[in-house]
Known about the structure:
Nucleotidyltransferase, domain 5; globular; six-stranded mixed sheet; alpha/beta; Dna Ligase, domain 1
Amino acid sequence: MGKEIKEDVVVGLDLGTTKVCAIIGEMDNEGQVQIIGVGTTPSTGLKKGSVVNIEQTVSAIKKAVQDAERMAGVDIQSVCVGVAGGHIKGLNSRGVIAVARRDKEITDIDQARVIEAAQAIAIPLDREIIHVIPQEYIVDDQDGIKNPVGMSGVRLEAEVHVVTGAVTSVQNIIRSVERSGLRVSDIVLQPLASAEAVLSEDEKELGVVLIDIGGGTTDIAVFINGSLWHTSIITLGGTMVTNDVAVGLRTPNTEAENIKIQYGCARTILVKEEEEITVPGVGGRADRRMPRRVLSEIIEPRMEEIFELVLEELKKFGFEDRIPAGAVITGGASLMEGVADIAEKVLQLSVRIGSPKRIGGVSDVISNPSYSTAVGLVFTAMKKTTAGVKGSNVSDKNKKGILSKMKSWFGDSF
Length: 414
């Protein structure tokens, strides 16, 4: 008996450097997202958020999706995909228009016009706008307006955050998904998806920085007054920590990853002197016993470097004093002991580890930071569906180019 085809489910697909994760969700009668399927498989075809081997990426997507389909008992036709990598760039822009109507009432058309004006920026031919996210509107010098429609004014301005990416990098992600037999319903910047899963509205309103430490990259997103004000990608992540451990302990990378997960600590002072670990040898050499502190002394400098780069980014754009809610750290590497401690030491902010929340179903399977992006993609796709747009698995034969489609809708989420 074949799987059921359901049009009211949404699928988030997180293409990471270390894993590919597919999560299937649906909305229950109380309006809560229920996770009904999860599939995860190791990733070998991506590096630092970009596809480097399409065949391996396609194989991983198929395996993750099949596992999720099997758990949920449904047939997936399309997915909402996350995008990240060093090619992603974010900048703030402003648009200004004169209100068109004689009675000076601002309409949806005026709102669309001012957003169009704000995104009219010069970008290289090899880059494409991924998101245009409104931050605030200004009506006749009155700022802090979230929705100007229905107000009266002569001059309408919009502050927006524009996210751009390399056309080829995004196309390679789309091509990999399509070669897996699926359609791409939407593409969403990964730190924005993670923010949907782990940040509270109070944190976004007060001012917070989300730090998503993945395998190949560390993604940064700053929210102030409920809106996104800054995004950036640092091309360092958990994989670099693993490489350091492999070299420092002279052990294979696969063993180094296991050691990091089981015994890793980002703060040496938290490790007891008497603790020891077993390190597998290379090429048939005998295993060795050594103090766990040696492992921590390898990990701590790299984690410190990551947070120093985050702090440098915040200072560069003047946000270090505008985030009283502190930092929320998520992603697989945030599971390591001592990560919050080293982050507080470097950033001089209050820090918490962020896990997906507001979910039901098999939530126990995915209620840890390594699933934040995939869960956030489900939330994002569900928002679009409940806002009146057809579900992600509905046929769309006349689909416009995905790069044009994803410019406008995400702004409605903020």
